[in-house]
Amino acid sequence: MTSLMTFYMGYAIFSVWLIPMSAYVRTLRHAVSQVPDQTVALAVELSIPPAGGELAAVITAENLRRVAPRQVVFYRKGGLQPRFVPTLSCQYEPLQYPLLFPHGTRGWGFLDESRKNIPCTLIQWYRHLFLGEPRMRIYGRLACEYAVDMFSRTEEERLHYLKRGRRMQAAAMDEAPNPDIPDLFENKIPAGFMGSRAWASDQVADSLAIARQLAKPSLFLTMTTNPNWPEIQSQLLAGQHFTDIPAVVCRAFHGRLCGLKAFMREKFGGLMYEICVTEFQKRGLPHAHLVVKLQHELPLSQLDGFICAELPDPDEDPALHAAIGRFHMHSQNHLDRSTSRYMDDLGRVHYRRRKQEDRWVTPPVPALVHLLDCHIYADVCSTATIFLYLFKYLFKGPDRARFGIRALHDARADNEDDQIDEFRDDMNARYLSSSEAVYRILNFHTVSKRPGVRCLSVHLEGKNLGRMHDRNQPGYSEMSDLLWYFKRPSTETFSGLKYTEFFSLFYLETVPLDVPLHRGQTLIATVTTEKGPCQKVLRRRVSQPIVTRLQTVPLRLKETFYLRALLQVRPANSFEDVRTIRGHCYPTYQEAATELGLFQDNHEAVYAMNEAITAYSRPSQLRFLFAQLLSNLPFPAVELWSRFHGDLNADYRLRHPTAHATDLALQDLARYLSAQGSSLAQCGLPEPVQRCAEVDLELAFFQTQLVSIRGRHKEAYGRMNSDQKGIFDHLLDQSDIGGCYFIDGRAGRGKTFLMSAMCDRVRADERIVCVTGTTALSVIHYERGRPAHSAFGIPVQESDMGLVSKVSPQSGRAELLRQASLLIWEELPMAKKAVVECADQLLQDIMRNDLPFGGKLFIGLGDFRQVAPVVRRSSGPTATVNSSIRTSTLWNHFKVLRLTTPVRQAGDLVYARWVDQVGDGVHPYETSVPLHHLQHLDDLDAAADFLFPQDSVSTSAAAVQHAFLSPFNARVDLFNKLILERLPGRAETYYSHDTIKELDDSTFNLPTGSEADLLSVLNEPGIPPHELSLKIGSVASVMRNLSIEKNLVKNVRVQVVNLLPNVVQVRLLQRACTPDTESPTFYLPRITFEFRPHRANWTVQRRQFPLRLAYATTFNSCQGLTLDWVVLDLTLPVFAHGQLYTSLSRVRSAVDIRILRDPNDIEQDTINVVYHELLLPL
After folding, report:
1. How far apart are CA 600 and CA 593, in angstroms?
2. Which of 82, 799, 889, 1128 stands the most exposed, by the fewest C-beta atoms within 10 Å?
C-alpha cells in the first residue's frame, strides 16, 4: 500500500510540472486513469540475475516469423477510441519518455507514410543524443532504459526490412522448392544481421580463414573494464553508480582497447592479424578477447619480460604490486610451482612461479597493467586450439536469459514445496544490457578483424544468389565471383589457381571501352553498364594478398555443399570441370567429392582392393590390405570376402587344395586382426579349421633357426665389452631363479645389443622369451617382439585408473606368458606405472602367486635421463613424476645393473662425457646449457642443404640416417614441407574426411556448415594432417601400429612407391637398406583416427592415410635411433624432461650435429629440463 501511495504522490508532482510544458501531457488522457484498481502487479524474474545491477531488456524474437513490433497506445481527453503510434513515428519518443522530452520535442521518425526528410538514421540520432545531450548522463537509469528501448527499436526495424527482402533471396538459394514443405530459409535471420546465428557462423569462418592463410596465432589476451578509471569516476554525479552512465563506460573501455591494440602493434613491430571479440555476459561491464599473430614470433627467452606470473617486489614497484593484487589474484589455479618457465607438448606455456603465493596469480602483462590500469590476462598460444575458446563466444550469439512473468505476490511463493516448471513458465530470450545497447549505438564493433576477409559466393549453375539491390543501380551485375573465376584466362599464371587463391592475388576492375589497357591489366570480358560498354579487367594486387574464403554452405543444400568442398581444394574452369576427376566427369558434385576422397564412400574397400589387384599385388600383400580394411571400414566383411577370397588365397592354391588354401588365408587374416585387437568372428567371417596355440607358434618360429641362433649369441658374446659380459653372465645365472632387474644404460651404451644376445642364449635352449616394449618401435629390432599393451592385453584409455588386462588366465596368450622363461621390457622408463602394474597383476594371476611379475625373470631396460612418460594435458613435472615407475611400489623390488662404457660415442669420449652431464643435469647444466662449441646454422634452407644435399635428397638411405629434430610438430611439418618441394616429381595431395563423433549430440555447439573449416585447421600429435601431400619416392613415417609381425609400426619409416586414389603403396625402410636392397612393400588404405582437441567436449574422427613425411621428427619420437647427421632445432627451447639430452645423444660425435637457432641467440644458453626426482643415484 505504501508503494502505491508513493506512486500517486510522484504522479501528482510530475503532472503539475509537465502539463504546462508538454502538449502531449495536456491533451492526452493519463495512463493512471486507465489502470483498474484490481490490476495485479507483475514482475519479471530472471533465473540467473545479472551482476552489477544494471538495467537490461529481454527480447523474445527468435526468427523472422516471430517479429512483432510494439506500439504506443493513447487516448485523447474525452475520446473513447484508442490511437496507436508505431515505433517509427517521430511521436513515439515524447509519448513513451515524457521526462526525457518534457517539451514534447519530436524524436526520430516519420510524420506520415512518405518517409521523407529524414536527415539521419536511427542509430545516428541516438548517438548524437548520448554524445551531445547532458540529460542522458543526468537521468541515469531512465537514460539506460531509453538506450535499450531505442536500440531494440532499431533491431526491430532491421528485422522487418530483412523479412520483406528475404523471400527473393530464398527463392534463388533453395535448390528444389516444394510447396508442400515449409520454407524454413525464409525465416532464418541472415548473416547481415549482427548477432544472428548466420552472422556468428561467418565470424567463425572468417577467423578460420585468417588462421589458415596467415598461420596460427601467437598471443591471446583478455582485457576487462575497470570501473575506477579516472575518466569514468570523474563523470559520476552525486549518488550515481557507473552503471548509470553506460556511454561514458563504453567510450572509456573502447579507448583503452584501442590503446591495447596500438601497444601490441608498436611493441612487436606490426601484427600479421588481430581478431577481437567484445562481450558483456550480464556482468555489467564490457570485456574483450584479443588474438594476435606477431610479425616476428616472440622468443621464449624474452617471454618472462613480457608475461610474468609472479607478484612483483612491493619495494621495487609498489604501484604494479598493488595493481596485480587488485586485478590478477584468483583462486589457486592448480598449477605446479615451477622455478622456470616451460612449454608442454600441446604448446601451452607454463610460467615461472618461484614463490608459494605466485600460484594465485593469473599471468598479466606488467607493461599493459601499468598502461591500462585494469585486468590484462595474456597467454602464448602456439596451437590453433585457442580458437575453440574464442569461437565459443563468437558462436553462442548474443547473451541469453531465461525469465518468467510472475504475479508480484504470487500465491506459489507461499508454498515452498511447489516446484516451478521452467519449461512451461520460463522463456529463453535475448538479454540486452544497457552497456551493450550503448556500445552498439556508439558504433563500436563487438567483433573486429584485421585484415578483413572477402567471402566468395558458392552456387550451382544457373542459381546465382539473389541480391537485395535494384537492378538499375550502377555497377549491378548478374555475374557472381564464381562465374568471373571461371572466366579467368587459361594461361599458366591463372590456370593453376584455386578459387580462393585467385581472388587473393587478383581483383577485378571496370575500365571504359575507349581507355587502352596498360601493362598489368588482363581483359576478361566486355560488359554493359548504365554508362555503356566497359571492359572488365584483372589486376594483380600491389599490396599483400588479401584473405579470402568460400561462403559457408550447410549440408542441407547437398549439391552446393559438395561443390564448395571441391572448390576448396582444386582449381576449375567451369561447373563441368569441377565435377571432372582424373578425366571422368561425374553427374553430381557429391560423387566427384567422394571420388576425390573428401567424403567417405561405402564402397571404398572394394575400390581399394581393386586398385591393389590392378597394380599386380601379391596375395600376401592383399591379405594384409584386406585385414586393414576390415578393421577400419564399415563395408560388410562377408560381402568383401566373397568378392576377393580367390585373390586372397591364390598363392596357397598353387601348393594346396582350395579348402586348405582358404584355411591358410584365414589364419593369416586372424593374425593380422588379432594385432589390431579384432578377430574374424567379430567381422562375421569363418574361423580357420586348423588353429595353432601361441606356444607352439612361438617355438616353431625359432625351431628352424636354432643353429644360426646358437652361433649368433656366441659371436655377440665375443663382441661384448666388460660391462656387458658381466651383466650377461649374472642374468644367465638367474634365469632359473627369477627376480626383477633394471639395466640402466645411458644413450648409446649397447642395451639393445646385450638383450638381443640374451634372447638368443635362452632360445638356444628351446625356451620361450617374451620381448615387450613401451612403444612398438622399440621392439622391432627383436624377433617376435610385441608392444606391451598388446603382449599383456592392457587397454588403451585416457585415464590410468582401473587398468585391468583383457587376457584371460585360460587363453593362449596366458599360456605363452606362463611358459616364458624370460620377460624383457624395452624403454621401461617411458612406461606409465599403471601400465607396468597392470602387467604385474596379470602375471601374478597367471602364475597364481604374489611375487612381483609372478616370480618370472623380468628385465627392464632404459635410461631415466631420456624422455619420461607422456602425460597429456599435464600442468608440470609433478604429474610426470607421479606416473613414472620410479614412484611405484614395484620399483623397490628391482635390482639395478649399470652399463657405463660408451658404444655409440666411443670415438668421441669428450662429447660423450658432455652429453652425460647434460642428461644428469649436474652443475653447470642444471637449467641451461651453452652450445657455442657446436656448429650452428642460420635457417631451414641451410639445414636442408646439410642433411639432404641435392644429389642425395631422393635417396632413401639418407632419409633413414639423417634427421631434423625439433621439440614441436609445427617446426617438423615446416621442414618436411621444404624437403617435399625439393623432391622431383608432382605431389599428390590427399584430404582427410573429418567429422564430429558427437555431431547429433545436443551438447555439440559449432556453426552449421563450418565444421569442416574448423576441423581442417586442427592438428594433433600422432594424427595425420588434414592435407597430406606425398610424392613417389618421398619418405614418410607410419602413424599407427599396423602389424608388429611385419615391422609396420608407429614411427617406422617407409618410402612411397605408388599413389593411388584409395591406397598408397609403401616400401619398408631399414637402416641398412640400399637402392638394391629388396624390402617388403605394403598397400595402406585410409583409416580412422580419433582425437579430442584441448578444451573441447567432442571428438574428431579423421579419416586419412596413416602417413606423415619423415625427414624431420620430434625429440620424443627419436629415442632409440642412431643417426649419422642431425640438425637440432632450438629456435624454440625444449619443454620436457630429457628432450635435450635425448636429441644430443643420437649422433656418434660432435661433428655430426648442427644447431639451428636464431642468429641473435647463438651466444645464449639453451634451456635444459631435468626432473631430478626421476633420475637414479649416480
Report:
1. 9
2. 799
H/E element, 1152:
none
CATH assignment of the domain containing 805: 3.40.50.300
Q: What nine digits make up the cell of 133?
A: 545531450
C-alpha span between 269 and 281 (Å, rounded): 33
Predicted confidence band of residue 484 (pLDDT cuts 50, 70, 90): very high
Q: What is the pLDDT of residue 355?
A: 55
Same domain for 571 and 659, yes or no, is no
For 820-870, the pLDDT digits (tens) are 999 999 999 999 999 999 999 999 999 999 999 999 999 999 999 998 888
pLDDT of 1081 reads: 92
Q: Same structural domain for residues 686 and 559?
A: no
CA 956 to CA 958: how far, in whole Å?
5
Q: Helix 658-675 and helix 619-632: axis angle, to 10°?
A: 50
Cβ neighbour number for residue 326 with a 10 Å cutoff: 14
Please check whether residues 676 and 707 belong to one and the same domain.
Answer: no
In a domain, 296, yes or no: no
Question: Is pTM beyond 0.85 here?
Answer: no
Using a 10 angstrom Cβ sphere, with 0-12 exposed, 13-18 middle and 19 or more buried, the burial of residue 690 is exposed
Please tell me the distance from the alpha carbon of residue 331 to that of residue 357, in angstroms, as a whole number: 11
Both 651 and 776 in one domain: the answer is no
- HSE-CB at 46 with a 13 A cutoff on CA atoms is 17
Count of domains forming the chain: 5
Q: Which of 173, 205, 235 is the endpoint of a domain?
A: 173
> How is the beta sheet containing 532-540 ordered, strand by strand?
506-512, 532-540, 521-529
In a domain, 399, yes or no: no
> What backbone phi and psi angles, to 5 degrees, belong to 573?
-115, -10
pLDDT at 401 over 90: no
Spatial separation of the C-alpha atoms in residues 90 and 437, rounded to whole Å? 20
- The domain in which residue 1033 lies consists of 919-1167
* Three-class DSSP category at 236: coil
Residue 142 has a CB neighbour count (10 Å cut-off) of 16
Q: Confirm whether 1006 is domain-assigned.
A: yes
Query: Hey, what's the cell of 1062?
Result: 584409395
How does residue 184 score in pLDDT terms, banded at 50, 70 and 90? very low
Pairing of strands 820-826, 768-773: parallel
